Amino acid sequence: MAPRVWFITGANSGFGLLLAQHALANNDTVIATARSLSKFPKALQDHSAAELVEIEMTAPDTEISSVIDRAVQKHGRIDVLVNNAGFGHMGAVEEISSQEARYQFDVNFFGLYNFTRAVIPHMRKQGSGVIVQLSSGAGLLGALGGPVYSASKFAVEGLTESMAVELQPFGIRVHLVEPGIFRTDFLKPAAEGRNMGQKKEGYFDIGGAMGGIHGSQPGNPQLGIERIYELVTGTGMAAGLQDQLRMPMGSDCYGMLKQKVAKLSETLEKFEKIAASTDY
């Protein structure tokens, strides 16, 4: 198969950077975005098959569409869009301001939405493509300390689940990748006391809990991006799983998904008669 053309947001660190490097090592082409070109490591800046783009996830949709259009004009196609960029603002609902909550959604949901919406017409025209949305275990099961972050990922889950159905007739495949806690810099702001709500007495100290495990997270990001690459390419451990919407990653996320299924099963059993009782 000809080399794939990848478009990866937030590719200056974490999963985004590792996936970009992995794709390049497999002779693919990568268009990589970051908030600043200076954030990219020199190895990526010097790579002949890497095109680096400076753009904010909160950029106007017209600017995002222009970036996608230019990439297609230059490379002829985009085979894979990976919406990786995002962050977590931690704290209870009462501890996070409405402005902070809106910014969380502007980055994690609306930025992702605008990049997705911009690439769909091109994939629809070429009759193929793969869209990978980086969600989270927190997009499956809400937990203490991160309701606004969790809500932004729940929104990504709902968007993507619906979108997968409507894009299937056009030959476009859609996946939700749901990592647990991986050893990237995602928790670094928590360790440094950043992206935290205004602490109020009595609430769980999510900042202390998350910051305290930074550097010792159980998930191996290199193995994680290898599984993502295999899911996209239909190889390795993910061969034959291309019809699956979700890919939980990490034993912690797998446990969260099992807990969610158990809770839903309990609800179904207990509310069957009430649900049926409200029909005409």
Structural account:
This protein is of the alpha/beta class and 280 residues long. The protein has a single domain (5-252), classed as NAD(P)-binding Rossmann-like Domain (Rossmann fold, 3-Layer(aba) Sandwich). The protein is 47% helix and 13% strand. The chain contains 9 helices and 7 strands; from the N terminus they run E-H-E-H-E-H-E-H-E-H-E-H-H-H-E-H. The protein has a 7-stranded parallel sheet with strand order 3-2-1-4-5-6-7, sandwiched between helices. Helix 1 (14-25) crosses helix 8 (221-233) and helix 4 (98-126) runs parallel beside helix 5. It is globular, with a radius of gyration of 19 Å. Residues 1-25 form the signal peptide. One of its GO terms (molecular function) is oxidoreductase activity.
